[in-house]
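Supplementary material to the annual report.
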Amino acid sequence: MQIGKINLNRSASTEHTSSPKKTTQNKLATNPFGVSFKGNVIQADVFESGKKSSNSIAEKGKLFASAVVSGINNFNESFRARINSVVSFGKKVASNVFDSIEKIGSTEISFDGIKNRLFPDREYSVKNLSNKSVDELKTMWTNLTPQTA
Amino acid sequence: MENNQKIKNIIMALGEHQDSKAAIDLLTEFGTNSPDDEIRELTAQTLIKKNTHDSLRVVLISKGKGINDLSARVAMASINELLSLKDKSEAIKILDDTIKMHSEEEVRNTARSVRALMTFTS
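Predicted assembly:
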């Protein structure tokens, strides 16, 4: 008995609700999704989260900022590395040059002829000339003066 | 190094040379008779810096040399060097003698002008 009643109730309820269901289905006939949800059309977009609109921009901004910062850090590191390599190269060159100059400065050449040939201007330095006799200076001056016929 | 610079170095070396008399003789013979103004100028300055009777006589009383040089540049450089001497006594003594006794009027006039300048600046 109870089962019959239930069945009757069910049929009644179906009869009672059948008319508005049909109308909504007709109204939303153009929407293919309206049929699959048994008449309850979901108005909101279920494929989109609600948070997306406001937070995603900020998060994107953060991501972009972090990418920029890391990029700058990488650039700084690479720049420093290059500068350091250039500076070390310069120091090495400078030390080599300094060593060479030191060696040249400390090298004693005993023969005046060789010395004068290697350093032709050194012969005419004031310091070197001061050690020569006046007669020698006179000869040197005469040799430097163009002879007039 | 150019020849002119080498000669300049020789002149500077002669200015510091221990054999002062021989150095002055060489500077007088070669330097003051050089055709190059720069060489004559440096020679006159070197002789004045020596500040001895013999070196000053060359540039003060010789016609065409030192303060009597035909080149205004050489003459002015010589006068400037004289004015910058710390001890001007020997130079003033020679100038006074030149004003009184020199045979050339032009040399006497130049000596008088330089003497007046030295009086005002000392």
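The helical segments of chain A are 2-27, 32-36, 52-106, 112-118, 126-130, 134-144.
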